[in-house]
Amino acid sequence: MGHECSGVVSGLGSDVKGFTIGDRVAVEPGVPCRKCQLCKRGRYNLCHEMEFFALPPTDGAMRQFVTVDADYCFKIPNNMSMEEASFLEPLSVGLHACRKANIGIGNKVLVLGAGPVGLITMMIAKATNATMALITDIRDHRLQIAKEVGADETVNVSDLSAQDAVKIIVEKLDEAPDVVIECCGVQSSIELAIKAVKDGGKVILVALGAEYVNIPVLEVVAKEINLHGVIKYSNT
């Protein structure tokens, strides 16, 4: 908590340019070292020295004032609320995942998990090139929200085996999905992602769950699945 934030500029360092007191800004909550090879290659989300809001020893933004590097503050337009601006952080997570998936025109996308990140990721997939987007969850009220914000199909997987879930997903999409974006982080969901994706497809792991999980690795090999992990975001 405390890393999805926006604020109003209340003070400026002597060398800061481009901002004035009173500017409303969205804040990128991770500040990398900007010196290592990963940072220099633009993959600063992988920087080993990153200081990220609310990850010890760095405090989060659930306080009245925070000090932020100007490079990681972004002015927001007058028609955007502060609450909406705070959602630019999870939106960046979804955008980074969809970029890694490289969703092509005509692709069908399965998103596992209809929490905030899953919903945003599904919306971004639809806004880019996805022909259809199906999202799963274990709670009907989340799936209802998903339909309201653009999901083409939904599936409640709470009482389904992986085999039965795959069958329903394929029926609803008319084929196996080209891309699966996993936003739950639990073993059963990762297993479903691997079993559901079409041969030669992509599975993008977004959620952080247990350190170790069992997966059907032979299926990953036999289907030539491209299995990608993503962490946070960069240049979004």
Automatic annotation (TrEMBL):
Pfam families found in the cross-reference section: ADH_N, ADH_zinc_N
Could you tell me which residue ranges the Alcohol dehydrogenase-like C-terminal domain spans?
A: 116-234
List the InterPro entries hit by this protein, alphabetically. ADH-like_C (IPR013149), ADH-like_N (IPR013154), ADH_Zn_CS (IPR002328), GroES-like_sf (IPR011032), NAD(P)-bd_dom_sf (IPR036291)
User: Residues in domain Alcohol dehydrogenase-like N-terminal?
Assistant: 1-78
Record-level Gene Ontology MF annotations = oxidoreductase activity; zinc ion binding
Keyword terms, alphabetized:
Metal-binding, NAD, Oxidoreductase, Zinc
Superkingdom is Eukaryota
Has UniProt tagged this entry with the keyword Metal-binding? yes
PROSITE patterns from the UniProt entry: ADH_ZINC
Q: Which cofactor names does the annotation list?
A: Zn(2+)
- Family per similarity comment: Belongs to the zinc-containing alcohol dehydrogenase family.
How is this protein named in the record? Sorbitol dehydrogenase
